Amino acid sequence: MRFVKGRDSRLAARLAAAAFGLLLPLLALGAQATDPAPAESPRPPGAAIASAHAAATEAGAQILREGGNAFDAAVAVSAVLSVVEPISSGLGGGGLWLLHDAKSGRDVFIDGRETSPAAATPDRYLDRAGNLDPDRSENGPWSAGIPGLPALLVHVAETYGRLPLKQTLAPAIRIAREGFPVYARMARGYQSRRAVMERYPGTRALFAPNGKPIAEGDLFRQPDLAATLERLAAQGFDGFYRGRVARKLVAAVNAEGGQWSLDELAGYRVKEREPIRFRYHDWTIVTAPPVSSGGIALAQMLQILEPYGLEALPEAQRVHLVVESMRRAYRDRTFYLGDPDFVRVPQALLTSPAYAAGLRASINPDKATPSDLLSGQPTPLEDEETTHFSIIDAEGNRVGATQTVNLLYGSGLVAPGTGVLLNDEMDDFALKPGTPNAFGVMGYEANAPRPGKRMLSSMTPTFMESPDKVVVLGTPGGSRIITMVLLGILGYDAGLDAPQVAALPRYHHQWLPDVIDAEPGAISAQAAQALRAMGHTLDLPPDEAVGGRGSSHVWGNLQTVEWDRAHNRLLGGSDPRNDVGKAEVVVSP
Ligand code: GLY
Predict the structure, then answer these.
(1) Using an 8 Å Cβ cutoff, are 580 and 24 in contact?
(2) Are 426 and 258 in contact (CB under 8 A)?
(3) Which residues partner with 498 through β-bridges?
(4) Which pTM was predicted?
(5) DSSP 9-49
(6) Within 13 Å, how many C-alpha atoms sit on residue 81's CB side?
(7) Is 320 helix (H, G, I), strand (E, B) or coil?
(8) 115, 386, 387, 418: which one is catalytic?
(9) 389: Cα within 13 Å, side-chain hemisphere
(10) pLDDT per residue as tens digits for the range 378-404
(11) CA distance 441 to 319
(12) 386 part of the active site
């Protein structure tokens, strides 16, 4: 990857786009509004939204035009994503949102992560030989945590929004009832999860009506989900967590052999937490605290990297140092991070400049540090889903929201009569200590399941703020989320703009497996050779021309917006790897 400052940054983006065969679409995917007002402006010239589906972005823009703020728009965007991206997130899942309230200047992290049901003890996830059974941790009733996203929507609407839920949920209700066309990624994802999903009658009724599975171009209607959203709009928290919907959710899980109680649903609570905040060059970075592992890892990596002057270094040297910072942060993730309400996370130590200096001192500038010095088993990376959207409104409010049902289509289990597809987030716990999960990351006691505990996440909604710019960014991608956000931050720091950052080729290292995974165009052949000579193992695309969705060497769906204060300009960047996303600037909301 090359970061090029100033006038060369367009070239960098074209290079990035060319790597994906996306030279022209970049123009369509980026959104821009410029106001000739010079110098720093106290307020943006409009609003900007970037999300993984055009219908969600448009719903958010509509809510802004109806007088809503960024938080109202976020509720609308999130709910529409729950309808049009069942592959990625939904009412049956959870979310981690980062908010900035312009009036008070306060940043707050909203933790709507799922919680562990009391019955979900580790022994439930082992097969007869005592090995982790992925069919339990990734599929069906035992894989699902108690959902958090509906409570998060109600909390944000009631605490930070100015419009009623009836108004902000209206676009999602309409789309659920009227339907939308199935797109290629959704149909492909269904095929890959079909064997699991069609075990369950509620799922079959929705996704394979009359025995015919959904296909690209079909109109996909979800009347039960529309009714569930209406209950949420009318009754708030109780509309989902108590009464009819709650009874159906518990009945569905228990009918399939799981064990949920009505009390566990009624007892679910959203948590407000203090975000992690640190400096990187001219930027203040505000990001996700535990129960996400993302903010601590970002603070470690960026503080390790800050003194190096990355941009002036040759490519191989730069990638080597970034990878060594990734390796160290992911090692710590494995041992120390979990739900801060249950375990003492040494956050102050892990995010301190002194600790970062110690880690930096352990990096050999010319040689890879073998991860197996620190023990563990290599495992393959697997596919992942989740979704992210970013919003800045005309008042300067911001939302960075990442939400998920975990793997493609979550647990695969739709509770009959609700339209709610349950998550499979239990796989994000360390169900068997030291055994990697679907993302190849593992954990120990800090992330062991306990009744009511939240499973460790990698979701990393992030703000960047400098005297010139305000940025919101985030992405899905399982354990790769954190390194994508890291590269996005480095890209902005190097002078790239929102569409360029969304398109930037990516590479990743997560301590174990001890491999650098890279997208097409992320590492040149020359740098790859130099990295191998330093002792790194690389997993590169077999052919640099190969790309596009479906290649295991392309990942993420980064959605970012920026307010360039110096030029009073708004820009949105929607990841060109996803052909249904949209960035939109609303100039006069
Ligand atoms: N389920 C993915 C994550 O939260 O990290």
Answers:
(1) no
(2) no
(3) none
(4) 0.91
(5) HHHHHHHHHHHTT-TTHHHHHEEEEE----S--SS-SSEEE
(6) 35
(7) helix
(8) 386
(9) 37
(10) 333 334 579 999 999 999 999 999 999
(11) 22
(12) yes
